[in-house]
Amino acid sequence: MGPDRPQAILLPVRASTIVASFAGALLLAFLPWPDLALAPDFVALTLAFWCVRQPRRVGLATAWALGLLVDAGNGVLLGQHALAYSALAFCAIALSRRILWFENWGQMLHVLLLLEGAQLVSLGVRLATGAEFPGWALFAGPLAATALWPVVCWLLLMPQRRPIQIDENRPI
Q1: 3-state secondary structure the chain
Q2: Which residues contact 170 (CB under 8 A, 6 or more apart)?
Q3: In whole angstroms, what is the distance from residue 162 CA to residue 160 CA?
Q4: How far apart are CA 41 and CA 32, in angstroms?
C-alpha cells in the first residue's frame, strides 16, 4: 500500500464477519489433515489478518480464547496454542501499521516471521514439557500459510469493499 497506489475506501467491518472467519478457520483447523506438520495454521493466519487490519477489535483476549479452543480441539497441552497465538497477536498489533504499508510481498514476509515465531513459541512449550523435537518439517506449515496470505486478504476484505461508482460530473 505504497503512497503512489490508489486505495479504495473500505466499509467498516462487521463483528459477524470476524466471528464467521474465525469459525471457518477453526473448522479448517479441526479437519483430519494427513500430515499435520505441513498443514497451514488457518486460525493463526486469520488471527494475524484481523490483528493487522482491526487491532482495536481483535487482540490478546481473542487470541488466548482461540488458542484454548485449538488446544482443546486438537487434544494437545492446554495453553500451548493460547500462548503462541497471544504472542502472535501482540506482535501483529505492534507491527500492524508497518505491515499495511507494504505491498503483498512485504506483507507476506512479515506474516511469515509472525507465523514462524508463533510456531517457535508452541515448539518451546512442547519441548519444555518433555516432548521430542518433531523435525524441521514443522516449519513448513507457516510457509504454506504465508503463501495463502493474498487469498485470505482478498476473501476477508470482500465484505468490506464498496462497489466502484463513477461520478460523471467529476473532472478527470
Answers
A1: CCCCCCCCCECCCCHHHHHHHHHHHHHHHCCCCCCCCCCCCHHHHHHHHHHHHCCCCCCHHHHHHHHHHHHHHHCCCCCHHHHHHHHHHHHHHHCHHHHHHCCHHHHHHHHHHHHHHHHHHHHHHHHHCCCCCCCHHHHHHHHHHHHCHHHHHHHHHHHHECCCCCCCCCCC
A2: none
A3: 6
A4: 13
Give the other-Cβ count within 10 Å of 47's Cβ.
28
- Taking the complete model, does pTM exceed 0.85, yes or no? yes
Average pLDDT for 125-154: 93
CB atoms near residue 110 (< 10 Å) = 22
Euclidean distance between CA atoms 89 and 43, whole angstroms: 11
Q: Mean pLDDT lowest for which of 54-68, 98-112, 126-140?
A: 126-140
Q: For residue 117, give the amino acid letter.
A: G
CA–CA separation, 147 and 104 (whole Å): 10
Is 70 exceeded by the pLDDT of residue 20?
yes
